[in-house]
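Structure, all two chains, one model.
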Amino acid sequence: MPQGTSYKPRRQGAYTHGQTAAASLFLLPNLVLVGLFLLVPLVLAFVISTQKLGSLGSPQYIGIDNFITLFRDTIFWETVWNTAVFTIFTVPVGMVIGLGVALLLNSVLPGRTLYRSIIFLPLVISGVATGVLGSWMFDQYNGFFNKFLHAIGITGPAWQSDGKWAMISLILVTLWQRVGFDMLIYLAGLQGISPDLLEAAKIDGSSAWQRLRHVTVPLLGPSTFFLLIMNIIYSFQVFDTVWALTRGGPDFSTTTVVTYAYREAFDDHGPQQLGYGAAVGVFIYLITLAITVIQWRFSRTRDEAG
Amino acid sequence: MAIFTPAYTPGVRNVRRRARGRFFGLRLSLAIVITLVMVFPLYWMIMTAVSPRVDLYQSGLHLWPSHWTWDNFTLPIKQFPVWQWFRNSAVITIAVTVITVIANLLAGYAFAKLRFRGRNALFLLLLSTMMIPVQAIMVPQFRLSIDLGLFGNLWAVILPESATVFGIFLARQFFLAVPDELIEAARSDGAGQLRIFVSIVLPLCKPLIAVLTLLTMLSEWNAFAWPLVVLFGNDQLFTLPIGMVTDLQGQYTSNYGALMAMNLLMIAPMVILFVAFQRFFVQGLARSGLK
């Protein structure tokens, strides 16, 4: 600590030294936690993925056998497909709805802050609670949706025993939960657009649609990019909603990759195929890393500007 | 659809009417319909939670309980250690919040205001850990928690869940706005770095502390994947979400009244926090993209 050294503005070196000592103390708690519980496990994940490790017995080195098994595992590819379908249907659809709602609630309306709060509310409700609620509303015998469809003369689909419909129910539940986030980010983005610009476009004789298409949407670019990355990562990593809503079923039809990693490595009874689960984990990490690198390449200015 | 409507147009007689813009009625009805669609599932949850069981299995839609009942709350509370789960959730949430907020504030300050070698490299290293999902590292983390003797008590959840860096970035941005002159003036008075941080910088950063505290509480109260991995088998250690999927969903496969009642119990603390501190939640989520 620079207790004795008086501050000298011109001599950078002297106080940089004192600051290095202080900085290490300031960083210590976070570095210990992250090092021990994130970085060490990350390295060990690669190690364990090369082992044959059932429950908690002794590990046996098998090289890349787990990965060979993984790439031949048709269920694994099914879960990759499920994750892709889930992501493609939740991310763009959620963002379009979020943008629409943000535009609507950015205009002058009585009670708009109340509408915003209510649309935002599902975001503070856990994925588990959302999934349990969804499992009730989509119950194929007594749930709200099928009773409602029955009341208007339609036989509702088998939300729980038909894999395709189970995936649709998962997507709808996720949209309900996530659309408030898209709205929030777009509302913040809309706040940053100068009204003069839109007014000028209006005076030039452009229609409302043209102004949206050529002025508002391009100016919302940074919000769109941020949402795209955040939502892809979220959809790629979704687990709690899936587990509470369908347990990944029927069979594997709503099992995403992260859900598969859990199903292989653990289940309600504790550890199962730990080595193989770690290999799925390594795959998940590499995909996450790829998304993060893309984010950095395209938005390097974001943090530096901060 | 009018994107921008001028709040005041000079020289127009009916200013109020003009300010509403085009398609006012259409926009208002659309906003109300969307809001009702969003709030309906919550209504359905509350309605189910206070309805007698026979209501749920009648044919036809019933939008209102035939009579109110608390049975859906008392049954699971009698059959499972629900209050113990509530307490575990609270203990974990408070402990993780205290540890995370302190660690992130300290680190965020170091990155914003202290000059040291390797600052950028270290910052990038921490940034790169931000997106690692639990499922990528749960196997080694599980073995580690056994080796460290954490397994079988709540620390097995608390310590790994406290290893987060989200708050560092939020904190750093906030601290960057604190004027250097203030810190240098205190230093020339002979104050140490920790003292400057605690007695000069932190009092200026109450909104930051509020945002970090609320967001950490939110994500911990709702934490699921890691607690599910590490708390299996001992229902005295469960948190509410783990008790919900492990015990309640197994027991009440068709008693949705009980599930909805326990769902309400589970979401109530965060909904109350949200209503009370909405401004901070909105600010924090807008900046960090947490969740």
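Residues 82-113 of chain B form the longest helix (32 residues).
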